[in-house]
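Ticket #4471: structure output looks truncated?

Reporter: J.K.
Steps to reproduce: submitted the chain below (316 residues) through the standard prediction queue, then opened the result file.
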Amino acid sequence: MMPINESNPNEFTVQGIADSPHLRITLFTAILSAYLIIIFSNLIIFASIILDSHLHTPMYIFLCNLSVIDISYTSTILPKLLSMLITQCKTISFLECFIQLYFFMCFACTEILLLAAMAYDRYVAICHPLHYSILMSPKHCVRLVLAVWVMGFLDPVAHTVLIANFSYCRSHQIDHFVCDLTPLLKLTCSDTFIIEICTYIDGTFFTASAFILTLISYVFIISTILNIQSASGRHKAFSTCSSHITCVIIFYGTIISMYMRPKSMYSPGQDKFFALLYIILIPMLNPLLYTLKNKDFNNILKRLIKHCFLLNYILK
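Returned output as attached by the reporter:
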């Protein structure tokens, strides 16, 4: 993947997000705390779903995969960012930069597809409840999850290979805290026409398709919920998908703010701000959104905590 070109650097310099020593310490503490919360909360969800057979249903299988994605893409970015903040070593090797770029895009693409799959699951559960066990059988659910991961990891390959073979002769300083597509394209003196076309096609047929599928699913879901006669029935149906709706709104709102603004509105400061929201806020909110009002999950979590305390007491 690494091109052989004398004009390419062995490493890039990442500008980061803070120069003041006091600000660096504050940011390091805040980001480290957020990272630990993300890892801990998502691991709890993952472990609870894996360990309890009552949660081995499509909705929770998707949620388990969402936790894995949240842990993975934050771990792709935040450890390096924390290292830069504490050591002030802002260099990243050429190979490491493009590995980071690839996996960052992989997990973003996988999450886009997974949210669409979760919307489809809620559509089948609410609009076709009698056929749910057939349409979302364990076999179909596993196939859907595998398709999400395979497509998510294959989609960024072309982008990564193309941009890694560009010539970087303008500058070796990335005006960001992560190796993302936009700041890297600003450094190249190669013709970016092909990758711009690839990005346009990808955005049209991949991201837009997943978004439209999610949107259509919720049009049918909301229409079905509104036709339910009893208020309690409407509330119960809506409660099963309210967390996912909130997650989708926050996710796509952040993505649109990052990548779909007019060029005149782009600025490094705004890019870093929205990137931090995407990398930190969403993985922190997802566990809260999906478990706060989920009685089944909360009851199982309480039972697991009791078992842990009992085991700890016995071992003592």
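Triage note (M.O.): checked the attachment and the full token line is present. The radius of gyration is 22 Å.
Status: closed, working as intended.
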